[in-house]
């Protein structure tokens, strides 16, 4: 079958340009065999490749990436490696308590794994155990924080509720009315992290970058075809998020929803003093349709908001032009003391969402496996699902693997054109309802 849609992310991702440059590994040319081939070198594919290589030290693992590591969604997110369950489908973000407990274990395992790798390989990715603020402005957002607090009580997790008067000491800005601080989130420079992970892969992993798979033939071996040759693999792992749908699986079940970010130039010393607050922090919105803000360790401010539904999974310039204006407005509301500070980069990237917020983990067909659909939480979740998939393929079973295998997976969506109409309406309505939080 032909793979009709290939990733095409914009070239303006600030994290990519601000992280250490590396030489991409050569694209694949010619024909080769492999026992294992993984499609997609984001958090999920990198973790799966590493763990397969450790579990099967005598096997050669092939990892194929259409673009360059650090340029795809894993390198262009807001960089929150979140510990707590973040079930945006539940009123209190926690939902069913037993599911939440296991989700917490999964996320903590993902964080631990990343932390260990960063330390072991000296990856310079500004990893900071800063925690995160969930900040509200509108009454609706404040009600969400109260519900979330009750959820955290149920889960027995620490937090601090910070009121309007105290918040400027934390974030500098006087914009927010209330925030709930949870200490367990880790903040990273995501592109630097995935580039570092790619450089630290075990010796029995061969990474091919700029090698988009354009055709696939399934059989007792799977033939992955690209413009300069093919790879014949005994086992294939799809770790390419919503692009997994174009390999014939979970068709129409994942929604490539794009969200957008801008990052400023570094603040001068005077500007840092005008801003005040802690030297670096991350705040996510109480309303899921609101704005994420970060102050980075290199003294830049990041704004992330706005959504578009791009069914082909590819970036679209018209949205970048539209949403940079919204970023500027959101920045001006939050940082009126910094009118002269401009954005240096604006970019977008795909979240693979499912209406039931469930990802896929397990077997898709004979000798074809997948960890797909991280629902906007792929830094920790993608990492741990990639690792656990490799453990499961090695014959291991544990509570976390059983939990992932039992998850329902992304649910079926209505057909087009109803799907686009419904998703676009929900995105517009959600952003409108977020009010000043957007
Ligand atoms: C602006 C933004 C902010 C976000 N903020 C956060 C956050 O703070 N925390 C968080 O946890 N998550 C966040 N996310 C979501 C997070 O980026 C994703 O969940 C994560 O990247 C998923 O990782 P992955 O490895 O599963 O997939 P991806 O990162 O999408 O990697 C899949 C790879 O597959 C490759 N691929 C696709 N098709 C092919 C093909 N045919 N041949 C070869 N390769 C192919 C792609 O090029 C891609 O690099 C955010 C996303 C965006 C866009």
Task: Please provide a written account of the structure.
With 438 residues, the chain is α/β, with parallel strands linked by helices. The chain has one domain (14-437): FAD/NAD(P)-binding domain (3-Layer(bba) Sandwich). It is built from 11 helices and 18 strands. It has helices at residues 14-18, 43-55, 97-121, 139-155, 167-171, 190-199, 269-275, 317-334, 378-393, 399-406, 418-433, and strands spanning 30-39, 61-64, 80-81, 132-136, 160-163, 178-182, 186-187, 205-208, 215-217, 222-226, 229-238, 255-264, 281-285, 292-295, 301-309, 343-353, 360-365, 368-372. The strands form 3 sheets. Strands 1, 2, 8, 9, 10, 11, 17 and 18 form an 8-stranded mixed sheet that branches. β14 (292-295) and β15 form a beta hairpin. α2 packs parallel to α9 (378-393). The radius of gyration is 21 Å and the shape is globular. The mean pLDDT is 95. The site of flavin-adenine dinucleotide has 42 residues, from α2, β12, β16 and α9.
Compact description:
With 438 residues, the protein is α/β, with parallel strands linked by helices.
Write the topology of this structure:
Layout: H1 14-18, E1 30-39, H2 43-55, E2 61-64, E3 80-81, H3 97-121, E4 132-136, H4 139-155, E5 160-163, H5 167-171, E6 178-182, E7 186-187, H6 190-199, E8 205-208, E9 215-217, E10 222-226, E11 229-238, E12 255-264, H7 269-275, E13 281-285, E14 292-295, E15 301-309, H8 317-334, E16 343-353, E17 360-365, E18 368-372, H9 378-393, H10 399-406, H11 418-433
Parallel strand pairs: 1-2, 1-11, 2-8, 4-13, 11-18
Antiparallel strand pairs: 3-7, 4-6, 5-6, 9-10, 10-11, 12-15, 12-16, 13-14, 14-15, 17-18
């Amino acid at each position: 079958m032909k793979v009709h849609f290939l990733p095409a992310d914009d070239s303006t991702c600030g994290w990519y340009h601000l992280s250490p440059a590396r030489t991409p590994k050569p694209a694949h040319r010619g024909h080769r065999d492999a026992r294992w081939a993984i499609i997609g070198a984001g958090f999920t594919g990198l973790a799966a490749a590493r763990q397969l290589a450790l579990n099967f030290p005598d096997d050669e693992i092939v990892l194929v990436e259409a673009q360059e590591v650090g340029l795809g969604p894993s390198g262009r997110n807001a960089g929150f490696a979140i510990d707590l369950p973040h079930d945006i489908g539940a009123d209190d973000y926690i939902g069913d308590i037993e599911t939440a407990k296991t989700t917490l274990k999964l996320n903590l395992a993902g964080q631990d794994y990343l932390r260990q790798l960063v330390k072991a390989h000296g990856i310079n990715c500004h990893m900071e155990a800063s925690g995160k603020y969930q900040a509200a402005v509108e009454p609706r957002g404040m009600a969400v924080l109260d519900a979330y607090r009750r959820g955290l009580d149920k889960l027995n997790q620490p937090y601090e509720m910070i009121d309007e008067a105290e918040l400027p000491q934390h974030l500098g800005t006087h914009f927010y009315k209330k925030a709930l601080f949870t200490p367990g989130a880790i903040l990273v420079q995501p592109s630097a992290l995935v580039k570092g992970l790619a450089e630290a892969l075990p010796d029995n992993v061969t990474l091919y970058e700029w090698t988009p798979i354009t055709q696939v033939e399934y059989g007792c071996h799977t033939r992955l075809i690209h413009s300069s040759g093919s790879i014949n693999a005994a086992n294939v792992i799809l770790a390419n998020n919503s692009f997994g749908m174009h390999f014939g699986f979970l068709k129409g079940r994942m929604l490539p929803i794009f969200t957008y970010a801008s990052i400023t130039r570094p603040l001068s010393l005077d500007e840092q003093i005008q801003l005040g607050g802690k030297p670096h922090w991350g705040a996510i919105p109480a309303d899921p349709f609101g704005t994420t803000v970060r102050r980075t360790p290199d003294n830049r401010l990041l704004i992330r908001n706005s959504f578009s539904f791009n069914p082909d999974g590819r970036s679209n310039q018209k949205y970048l032009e539209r949403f940079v204006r919204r970023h500027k407005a959101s920045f001006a509301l939050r940082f009126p003391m910094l009118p002269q500070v401009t954005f240096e980069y604006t970019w977008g990237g795909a979240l693979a969402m499912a209406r039931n917020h469930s990802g896929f983990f397990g077997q898709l067909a004979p000798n074809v496996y997948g960890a797909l659909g991280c629902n906007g939480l792929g830094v920790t979740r993608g990492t741990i699902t990639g690792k656990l998939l490799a453990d499961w393929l090695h014959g291991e079973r544990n509570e976390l693997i059983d939990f992932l295998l039992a998850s329902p997976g992304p649910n079926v969506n209505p057909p087009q054109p109803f799907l686009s109409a419904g998703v676009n309406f929900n995105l517009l309505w959600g952003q409108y309802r977020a009010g000043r939080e957007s």
